[in-house]
Design goal:
Length: 683
Amino acid sequence: MQIPTIRLHRWLCWLLITMLAVTYAVGTPRPVAAQDGALPRFEDVPCTELLGEQLAFTVDQSGPVTCGYVLVPAEYDTPGSRTLRLGVVRFLATTANPATTPLVLAQGGPGGSTIDTYLQILPQSSLFAERDRDIILFDQRGTYYAEPFLRCDELFDLTIETLDQDLADDEAFEMSQAALGECRDRLTMEVGSLSAFDSIENATDVESLRVALGYNQINFYGVSYGSLLALHVMRMYPDSLRSVIIDAVAPPQINFLLEAPLAEQRSFNELFAACAASEPCNTSYPDLETVFETQIERLNETPVMITITDSETGERYDALLDGDSFEGVVFQTLYSTEFIPYIPRIIYDASKDDFTALSSVLGIIVFDRTFADAMYLSVICAEDADYTLADVNTGDLPPELATAAQQDAEDFLESCTLWNVEPLGPAVDDPVSADVPTLLLSGRFDPITPPTYAEAAAASLPTSYNIVFPTGGHGAAFDGGCADQIIADFLANPAVAPDAACLDAPEEQTVNFATNRDIIELPVLLRLANLEGEALQQLGILGVLLLFLLSIWLLGPIVWLVNRLRNRETRSLPPVAHLSPWLAALNGVLLLAFIVALTVVFFALAFDNNTVVLFGMPGNATPLFILPIICLLLTLGMLYGNVAAWQQGFWSVARRIYYALLTLAALGCLAVLWNWGMFTALI
């Protein structure tokens, strides 16, 4: 979910890379009872108050929904501790006879916003379209729609300030530590003890949510860190759970931080093997691993300056990209199942110094203002910083990678010392053995929580069903396809193994890597979407020229009517004089149709979160690009008519000048389209 910050420091890059990661805690059950005016309790608020006008409007279109806050104590074992407010969006069931147990969702991180994430993901899910039970999104303590929101603006500002700087590691570490200390001091003054934001309190919040909303039992879904949170809830409140779904599983008995270097290498090996085994991928991107390693070495020797865009402000920033950062970005793309088919293309584009798609992904993630990085630090430092450097598992990694992993681990320990939260103790590593029906989901290419982690978790769970998605990355649920079918079957009867026959389909077994035949390369579309100045200027020129070309639909009928009223004879004119205005009129309409169709297709893909928009258009849109060719032929016809008009003297001088300007406008439109690459789509 988080992409490493370019050229800042290996520690901060590693921190951002691991923000999807796991944290471990153990606790004893704390009775939670709802009382009037006491905690926990639920406060209804308008969705506009929680989400803002735009998101609230989107939510309201999804059927019956309520919004509000669950109020909980900051520290359950400390009487009189401050009150926290956890944002809740509850989508009510839409079927006639809904189930009484809701599905509660928890995002990973720790620090990710469940509400922000799943308001984007859920609409594509079949589980959401026809809801047979309530679906509840709640933001965990410290995250975006909770109060307080624990975010280190100091680290964000430092990242922006140093994007284009080539800092030595020692200098960058000192700067990041200083920013971290400032953040800790500020948040301690604002919210009190940062030790209150750990998985023990977080798991108790889940029980508080159940009690405050009045459910006897819930079904709980957690992804990444959310899966570990689910396991904590299972340990502490098993009777409150009808079933559990854990996705991208993070079991407490495996310290993710110590295994991260090998998990990363395993994921890359899976990618390279899958491409080599795919004839289209191996043909289009031969020897992918060597090309990847070559680019890392090249960029480390000679970093390049790229441009990334802050979509919230529209500002563009120069960012220095070296080989280690490039590797980190590609590593991050392995999280996304939808992005995996395009990773070979990203690697080969880099070999041509084309970082268009990579820059777009970086812009989206680097400027993410919804992630609670301070909450992440509180959780992970309390639960995972109890290792020594000898514990870091580097296996058979190359010496330079093993050394880097050791340094990252050492830097992170220093940062946790600075953050200074209370540790939770060694018992957090105990496996969970609650007898709650559990569905475990994993992806073959997951770079953080490989399928073996789910196997380890399942080993101590009496009623569990472990499923691996052969084309999956980090998180499988709510894809609108096979994963949703399996989840629906499990929720219908958790005591029975779900039907996973859909995994036998060819598209579920093999990654369909995107090749040149699958992509119409049009980087200008992304530049326009990012509101880049030069692209917008060209769009403005195209718009003015097209409007002038379309003016013939207004002036043409007027000229015809004037000629009729004045009884001017036009039948004696040569055929080219009659045909030429129609060529201009048709040309304008087809150019307009092409621009409109291109815009509609692009935004449809963008709203569907289709990764192909980072590169251009899907290959099946090729027929659309016949229109510019037709317009080129029509423009040639207009040129012929223009020459004939001046040679033969038909039409008035004013009309000949106007038609010449129409021809120039058509040529200008085609020149812009040519510059944008619209004529190469059929090649």
